[in-house]
Design a protein that fits this description.
With about 270 residues, the protein is mainly alpha-helical. Helix content is about 50%, strand content about 5%. The termini are far apart.
Length: about 270
């Protein structure tokens, strides 16, 4: 009943579907309600209420899909972080794990239930909010990037971590200095995100998934190389016949005979 009443209070546009990320006490309880039945009340065009929740099986499937998406993307993002910053693998996993928590495995870029009532909420991998969201959107406008793309999200994360944009440039050093994966997860959250509700258990879980995906990606066997096309061996050299060395010797001998003939005669 509590969930039913809470969902009745959530309004959203009937034109553009959203993923509904419902949290009850812990971020581990995520439900994607994009397919939830909608009803449009009379005399309220454009406003819809979702009156039902997906089944637990649908919720489990949504979470499984989010984790699969995250596992596919995490190693590549970690590799870019390792190339661009002086950090170790655990620090990269801590950063990506925080992003996985914030965006439900990179599947929910728009915050559905903003902390500040009436605001647009967070957006992107890191759920950039307020001035940071506006700065990110302005950057995308200037550069022609899609704010929903991985390219734009990583580019903005890079600019903030480098200190080129914003005031979060110290996050890399603090994350790297922390000892152990869990400490690095917390250090990054405190230096870069400063969330109102920490949910460290969820952040650490996503970081461990990122690290496991990285290790699996590095130990996976390489694609087998195609077998070489057989080539007929070169034919053996022919035996017999006139050899070049013999021809040269014969010419020299004849030249000596001719020279001796003219020498004797004259």
């Amino acid at each position: 009943m509590r969930r039913h009443r809470l969902l009745q209070r959530i309004r959203f546009s009937a034109v553009r579907p959203y993923h509904l990320d419902c949290r009850f006490g812990t971020k581990d309880f995520n439900i994607i309600c994009a397919s939830a039945p909608l009803t449009q009340p009379p005399n309220r065009p454009g406003i819809c209420w979702a009156f039902s929740f997906p089944s637990s099986q649908e919720a489990d499937m949504a979470n499984a899909n989010a984790e699969a998406n995250f596992r596919a993307k995490a190693p590549g993002i970690m590799a870019k972080l390792l190339d661009d910053f002086p950090i170790e693998i655990q620090a990269a996993a801590a950063i990506v794990g925080n992003a996985g928590h914030e965006s439900l495995g990179f599947t929910a870029l728009q915050e559905i239930k903003p902390t500040v009532v009436g605001s647009r909420g967070g957006w992107g991998w890191m759920q950039w909010t307020g001035p940071r969201r506006r700065a990110f959107e302005a950057y995308c406008m200037r550069t022609g990037k899609d704010p929903a793309s991985d390219e734009a999200n990583y580019a903005w994360l890079y600019l903030e971590l480098k200190g080129i944009e914003g005031t979060e440039g110290a996050a890399i050093g603090k994350t790297q200095a922390a000892i152990g994966l869990e400490a690095k997860v917390k250090a990054f959250e405190q230096a870069f995100l400063r969330a109102g509700v920490k949910h460290y258990d969820s952040r650490i879980r996503w970081a461990k998934i990122a690290l496991a995906a990285w290790e699996a990606d590095r130990t996976a066997p390489a694609d087998p190389k195609p077998a070489p096309i057989p080539v007929d061996p070169l034919p053996p050299p022919k035996t017999g016949g006139i050899k070049p060395a013999g021809v040269i010797v014969a010419i020299i001998f004849l030249a000596l005979l001719v020279g001796a003939f003219f020498f004797v005669r004259f």
